[in-house]
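Quality-control log, excerpt.
Job 1 of 2 completed; input and output follow.
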Amino acid sequence: MIASLYIHIPFCSSLCDYCDFYSIDINSIKENNLKNEYFDSYLKALVLDIREQIEYFKIEEIPTAYIGGGTPSVLDSKIKYLLNELNKISCFNPVEFTIEANTESVANDFLDICKDGGINRISLGVQTFNEKSRLAVNRGRSEHREEKKVKKSLKIASSYFPDSLCVDLITGLPFQDNAAVFNDINKILEFNPSHISLYSLTVDPETPLAKKINLNTILLPQNEIAEELWLTGRELLITKGFENYEISNFAKDNKYSRHNLRYWRLENWIGAGAAASGTIINDSIPQGKRYAYNSNIDEYIKNPNIQNANCEILDKLTLIKESLLMGYRCSDGPDLTLFKNRFSCSIEECIGETLFRWQNKNKMLYLNRFLEEAFVELERRMI
């Protein structure tokens, strides 16, 4: 079986108000020796889990790998243990190996370890250069996020990964206008990234940001303005030679995220770490198995076993819906051959009427409306 690998590092130097990914603030661990022991225990659990999952699912090839979080770069030199252990695994030879990092924790020593360990792509979370916007959502401490320091980190990262520097930006933040979006993108372009993710801020109801909004202690741009901000960024990136190949992702010279493309095509992946998830699909049925670990680091360290993960079975109808939902996020649409081989029918046979109505419309930019119509037709045909 072929499956990609996602590794979750649930540690951050500070927690952003908008983030709904599971992570803990490492500053809550006061003593450095305790912090180091915690990191060591978690990394050992990760390695054990990954090896057991490879055996459990009979994985013979890992084409892509992604270390995300949280903030993997807060591990600093300890990331070396994880990379060394991964490279001992016979089926681990990814053509794309990505690590996420924040600009305040990027340093030469860390990047040396990453390069030596086989990482060939880095994704930096810049989000914005606008200090008022950044501080409004608690994005990093001020002394670590001065513009000159962020630019220094970008310069260092681009020297290590000149053809595979990826940057995340967010629009729709407080105090943000079109000029600020233009400013963010133009400053990022100085470092010649091959890939930019431009996200429109979404507010999860369980986040600190949602609570502040409900208390009227912070205001976001109105929906129409937020949409305009994202479209402003999109138009600028396209004029600068970037392809909007997925709803929120832009690439130059076909430098797509191969790992994320496997998600969007609904191909197999395993996930390791607290709060990580994976999806394995048996194409011969077709039926899928999706599992997710609890959001609890201590629990994961004690017993990092796939058998303890929460599991759900994905039936054929669910898989078809997810294939459409994920596939039409991309400008090329779903993989037609994979879809036909997996479900023994074409997409046209499932949602032909909807496709006819939408043949001259942009499905990617109006995805929710398109999918609403597609799912109604799909259920009518299959039920």
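Job 2 of 2 completed; input and output follow.
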Amino acid sequence: MEKTSTISEMSPAELAKCRENLRHQWENRKVDEELLQRAWQTAHHLATVLYQDYGASKVAVFGSLTTPECFTENSDIDIVVWGISYDRCLDALWGTEGLSTEFKIDIIDTESINRLFRQRILDQAIPIDLNETEIHKIIEKKYTSTDTEIGENYEVNRDQLVKRLSDELKKIKITVNRIERALEKIDEFPSDAREFMERAISADLAEVYTGFEKIFERIANEVDKHLPSGDSWHSDLLTQMADVRSGRPPIISNDVFLRLIELLRFRHKVNNIYGDELIYEKVEQHAKEISQLFEDVSKELDAFTTFLSET
């Protein structure tokens, strides 16, 4: 991969050009009304299934679908439910898999939401216990309640993106801390119990990468307006984050890119081979390096959010 400059290495003129391009992208984005309507129809259908077949007491939409100007063809439909357990949510996710071929659907229950993020989700949630006309009235009110000036719409979108990136990093930090505690204790475990701890660390390492990937997906969707597709999309997304785009500098440095590629390969092994085929030395290597990697990714994302704030 061709070496590119990070934000800290770019000249003031280069940064100014990126800021201007990004501002232009934000100011000229348009809401795809037809796409939005199809997404809400899918959410409404899903809610009906959750009420009738799974016994949900309340269903609501949160995330990008509640902010029309942020919703794109690559966005998910995020659903939060009341009255259904975590396991029942997984059943519902499997049971509704064929409901839409256009949108990816995520379902979570209120009890499994981390307390830190519950209130933010509930603040933006739009309940689907209404008829479609009432839903569209809520959306219209939510969309037009901001100043209609282009600059104000950009301000809202930018601030929301920065908050969501920060939220994801906080979630990842919780998992990184858990890995650190496991490393401190693993040598105290008897040999027949150590295997279970090793597998747990492996799963947490995979979860850390998934968290990073969610952040990069959000940037790809909301800033680049392009999410890679195809069999190699996971690695292509990392390449995209390390490249200069018309509206932004690189998100990650080449060094972080290479380390994340290694973690991506490790996650692929965790997700696709049997646990006893994992070599713990490799697990331990990633586990010992994960705190530093998290710190480095965080610093580079902080530089990017500072760039956004100054744009």
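Post-run check on job 2. The longest strand covers residues 76-82.
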